[in-house]
């Protein structure tokens, strides 16, 4: 292996794969869904979740208008849907109708919760910050939806039951399986 060092940053996909998830939003009678792989938990108390979105996206406008967003985690069986909502614009089409997306009712917000999701968070927007070509939108998680059978008693995703969608970049997707899981003891200092 040859290590290459460069000041040319490029698209920096090197830290992938990342979990691909679907952000949902609803405002002024319109609902929409888009894929994100740039997202992260930010704080446990208060429970904060961050998503990075290009401000030109239709979803961004809906989030700013409603001050809410949902983030939905889907199994690998839904990889086609993840790619479809990540490569089409809600300004042009109704993605829920076009891709036959079924949703459940939220309890604290008006964001669509996807029926196919093994977990989803309802978030209330607490911050919107410009970081170059993406904005970091931070939401307080006000409700968690999850399929009980998809998780272990310790609330970890059970990889024998559900395979997550991982995104490598450049339209390449993969998943992982339970036989790669290793439990390591704490080093203790
Ligand atoms: C796997 C994947 C990951 C993506 N991640 C992001 C992301 O993190 N942030 C972003 O702004 N767009 C991301 N996109 C692009 C948007 O999902 C895409 O532009 C979408 O069409 C926007 O929809 P909208 O205009 O209806 O909001 C991603 C697309 C794919 C396929």
Description:
- The chain has 189 residues and is mostly beta strands.
- The protein has one domain (18-170): Pnp Oxidase, Chain A.
- The protein contains three helices and twelve strands.
- The strands form three sheets. The chain has a seven-stranded antiparallel β-sheet with strand order 3-2-6-9-10-5-4. The chain has a three-stranded antiparallel β-sheet with strand order 1-11-12, with no helix packed on it. A two-stranded antiparallel ribbon has the order 7-8.
- It is globular, with a radius of gyration of 17 Å.
- The two termini are 34 Å apart.
- Flavin mononucleotide binds at residues 20, 32, 34-38, 52-54, 57-59, 83, 86-90, 134, 167.
Give the amount of beta strand, in percent: 35-45%
Q: What would you call the structural class?
A: mainly beta
What's the pLDDT, averaged over the residues?
97
Bound molecules: flavin mononucleotide
* Rg from alpha-carbon coordinates: 17 Å
**Treating each run of at least 4 consecutive H or I residues as one helix, how many helices?**
3
Give the fraction of residues assigned to helices. 10-25%
- Report the order of strands and helices: EEEEEHEHHEEEEEE
CATH topology heading: Pnp Oxidase, Chain A
Give the name of the CATH architecture: Roll
Strand neighbour order, sheet with most strands? 3-2-6-9-10-5-4
């Amino acid at each position: 292996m040859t290590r290459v060092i460069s000041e040319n940053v490029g698209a920096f996909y090197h830290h992938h794969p990342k979990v691909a998830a679907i952000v949902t939003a609803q405002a002024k009678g319109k609902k929409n869904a888009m894929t994100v792989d740039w997202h992260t938990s930010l704080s446990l108390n208060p429970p904060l979740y961050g998503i990075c979105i290009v401000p030109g996206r239709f979803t961004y406008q809906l989030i700013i208008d409603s001050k809410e967003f949902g983030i939905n985690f889907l199994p690998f069986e839904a990889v086609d849907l993840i790619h479809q909502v990540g490569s089409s614009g809600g300004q042009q089409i109704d993605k829920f109708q076009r891709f036959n997306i079924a949703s459940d009712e939220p309890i604290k917000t008006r964001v669509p919760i996807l029926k196919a999701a093994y977990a989803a968070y309802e978030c209330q927007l607490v911050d919107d910050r410009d970081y170059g070509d993406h904005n970091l939108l931070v939401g307080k998680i006000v409700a968690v939806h999850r399929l009980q059978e998809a998780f272990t008693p310790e609330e970890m995703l059970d990889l024998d039951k559900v395979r997550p969608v991982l995104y490598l970049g450049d339209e390449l997707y993969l998943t992982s399986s339970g036989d790669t899981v290793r439990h390591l003891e704490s080093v203790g200092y």
